[in-house]
Specification:
heterodimer, A: about 400 residues, alpha/beta, FAD/NAD(P)-binding domain, D-Amino Acid Oxidase, Chain A, domain 2, 8-stranded mixed sheet, globular, B: about 80 residues, alpha+beta, Alpha-Beta Plaits, 3 helices
Chain lengths: ~400, ~80
């Protein structure tokens, strides 16, 4: 282990691993530090992703695909079910294997990786970020770098230390808890979503199949909701009602920063990617694909900046991200805010009126258009991000 | 005075983490405006000098790990 690298990546989730890979592929030296003892574990995620989102970065592989999805089932409070079919929509992943494979790809590209390395501060030189302080097996260490990439997730502190405003308003924090349970008899090719004030106000409840009658069952609610009733309490209610005797294989909690991207995701010597940059799709709460995209852009620019010896180049990352996805996320945020406070009756009405559309013409875009038919400005937004 | 306000009459902190319940997910760290919570692999702690008792962490915790000791509020 050296104590000087061109680039140090903090966090070995999908965003960090892709950033490390894209940087290392350009022949610069990269170290990736992970605080946990295993890359990919513990999992903090519902694990669903679109096929296109995955395949931009890694060829599909059965060893990390738990289920192949081609249908969404969206359920309103009065149990009106809306089914939307897709071709090759995506997967429910085994994140612990998926993350591990992504990290292996970074290693193949030449990145060094160290687990159980907890970054607890930054080094500065002339007001520029110049490396990290980290604890490794009880010993305090330092490593210098020209560029630090913060991929340290929802709990990110790297950005704050560098002076970036990273704090998430608790309204925008989707507070999630999930169990992976056995003996759940659901269609293994369908993602199930449940809406309404009794199941997940201001968010949604999910049942995502993982094959062999195993499923991820969980929900996310805004921090505002958590003031009155916790996500855990909603989860327990749902499980008692529907799956009271299901064996629980894992049980986890997590936070999804469901806002638009931070105002600034780079500064001299530092770039933020993934959840740390708040690059989650604020409507779906999905962050694996968008985090990998953020990671790839950051990794590529960081590598170029080192090679061209022009470190100011990293400041172009903000714009590159904004063009690729940041703008879209602003649209998703507006749509989310449009439906955030819908009443149960409203959800029921939308579901019934959507079900009048011929089956083969049902798309997500049309569903949102049905939901927001009274808000013309949002209809334009929907047309920009969905096929209607 | 500020330091006093942070302490409950019982001597307990106004905001408390119940580590036995914690899943170390980092939700509270993300919503903390003061960078007052520290999360290592499976160690979580409040940095007392920075905490302002805003309770955003309490509301955001998905699994009821953080607790707000109301009885500890001083009436200034």
């Amino acid at each position: 282990m050296k104590n000087y690298y061109d680039i140090i990546v903090v966090g070995a989730g999908p965003a960090g691993s892709v950033a490390a890979r894209f940087a290392a592929e350009q022949g610069v030296s990269v170290l990736m530090l992970e605080k946990d003892r295993d890359v990919g574990y513990p999992v903090r995620c519902g694990e669903a992703i679109s096929k296109a989102g995955v395949e931009e970065f890694i060829p599909s592989d059965d060893k990390w695909i738990a289920a192949r999805i081609n249908k969404f089932s969206l359920n309103s409070p009065d149990k009106t079910e809306v089914i939307i079919e897709f071709q090759d929509a995506g997967y429910v992943l085994e994140r612990r294997i998926f993350d591990y494979e992504l990290a292996k790809k970074a290693a193949d590209a030449g990145a060094e990786i160290l687990t159980r390395a907890y970054v607890n501060g930054l080094l500065f030189e002339n007001d520029k970020v110049a490396g990290v302080k980290y604890e490794f097996r009880g010993e305090q260490k330092e490593a210098k770098a020209k560029i630090v990439i913060g991929a340290d997730g929802v709990e990110s502190r790297v950005g704050r230390w560098a002076g970036l405003k990273t704090y998430v308003h608790f309204r925008n924090m989707e507070c999630c808890t999930q169990v992976t349970a056995a003996n759940i008899k659901v269609d293994s090719e369908t993602l199930y979503f449940y809406f309404g004030k009794n199941v997940a106000p201001g968010g949604y409840f999910w049942v995502f199949p993982k094959g062999n009658n195993i499923a991820n069952i969980g929900l996310g609610v805004s921090g505002i909701v958590g003031k009155d009733k916790s996500a855990l309490s909603y989860l327990n209610d749902f499980i008692n009602q529907h799956y009271s005797n299901a064996p629980i294989l894992t049980s986890i909690a997590g936070g999804v920063p469901s806002s638009i991207t931070l105002e600034k995701i780079s500064a001299p010597g530092i770039m933020l990617v993934g959840d740390a940059a708040r690059q989650v799709n604020p409507l779906s709460g999905g962050g694996i694909a968008s985090g990998m995209i953020g990671g790839s852009i950051a990794g590529k620019i960081a590598g170029q900046a080192i090679k061209s010896n022009n470190l100011d180049l990293i400041l172009s990352y903000d714009k590159a991200w904004h063009e690729r996805l940041g703008k879209r996320h602003e649209i998703f945020e507006r749509i989310k805010n449009g439906i955030f406070n819908f009443s149960d009756e409203k959800f029921n009405k939308i579901a019934r009126s959507f079900n009048k559309i011929p089956y083969e013409k049902r798309t997500l875009g049309r569903l949102f258009a049905t939901a927001l038919v009274n808000q013309p400005s949002l209809l334009m937004d929907i047309a920009k991000v969905f096929v209607v | 005075m500020e330091q006093k306000f942070r302490q409950a009459k019982t001597g307990k902190l106004m905001i408390e983490i119940l580590p036995d319940k914690c899943d170390f997910c980092g939700c509270c760290v993300g919503v903390c405006p003061e960078d007052a919570i520290e999360l290592k692999e499976a160690i979580i702690s409040i940095i007392d000098e920075r905490c302002t008792n805003c309770a955003k962490c309490v509301w955001s915790c998905p699994i009821e790990v953080l607790k707000f000791n109301k009885e500890g509020v001083f009436a200034y």
